[in-house]
Amino acid sequence: MSNTATTSNPLDLPEIRLVLADVLPLHTLTVCARVNKEWYRSFMPPLWRHTSLRVDIDKAGSPSAKVTTLKSATKNKEFIHNLSIIDFNLWRVRQRKELWSAMSAFPVLRSLTLQQTYDTQTVVKPESIQLLKPRFLHLTTVDFHPNINLASESYEEIMSSCPQLLTLRGGNVKALVLTQGRPWVCTLLRLWSLCLDFGTIDDYRGKITDAATGSSDSATSSSLEKNIGQQVEQMRKEVRRQLFERMSLLVHLETVDFRKMNPKGLCQPLHVDHNDSGLDRLLQCPRLKEVRFDWDDSNLETYDWIKTQWLEIKVNSPPALKIEDEFEDEDEFEDEDDDDSEYESDLGSTESDEYGYRRGRGPYCARCDEHGCSHYAEVLEIRHQERRYRHGGYSGRYGRW
To answer: Where is there biased composition of kind Acidic residues (predicted)?
Structure first.
């Protein structure tokens, strides 16, 4: 009787397969999951861990198409950690409980991304976000495309209910709602990307009216009514202080982005005065590395103050300064011999400045005979198109303006 040595394949051990599954690419995982039932059970969880659901825009008129798209994900919901829903029309699904209920049914959901929507006016109601509340305790990433008009109350609910949150991206949010809500529990937050809206007169009118009505002195009531604009501005300043005070408690915060892009791609500046807005409270965040604002001529003084005081924090430059810095580097264009006179009369004079530009004033326009005119964006776009054409389509240095 002979002793036969038995050799076992390491891949027969489920522990080994699980280790390999964490490093294998997606196409390899797909092949391995089809070997047999045991391999299917080992390689299927990492295959569904990062899931992207796409909805064809041509099928946007069929609500059943969206529900059908979620069926396969729902069957494997216990494996999905990171869910991305892209290429869909938000207007048609915002009221459908199938979408939000399906997302709330994923027991191990950690990351939720809604991107590339095809509308800019739809508001996602708080009732829809409430369906996700069972997952709030485990969410680490909430990434909503800026054109998804999520209600400010929903952002407040997320920040006060997601203790594991690390990344928060979204669109416009009312600072008044954030400061008047419950305390934030997202103390582990590392990336904040929200555009703050400090409200209009209508948002504060109720408080001023209540104060005036509650006063027994008619002279005081009359004074409040006459100085309503001044009162509103004082309230805005107080909201700023309260907001930055709350943000200073986010000790793990590394990146703060207050910028907003409207549907046309033009910046809407956030006017923050460093003298009385409490902006210096952000310095209490020990890990803060980068802050991004929308800059214009009205808040360049704040930019200069930040660059002077925040020596260890990276701050984005105003667009005007970025344009000048790019144009000052002529190494890219040392072989350029073209004559600009053919479009000089329409775009701007180059007598004293090669590119018709002045720091903080915008390009010179011969149409209006002034700097920084209403043709500012048009001037830049035409100039950039001309340069891209002359340099064979090169556009890497200019980016999006």
So the answer is: 327-345
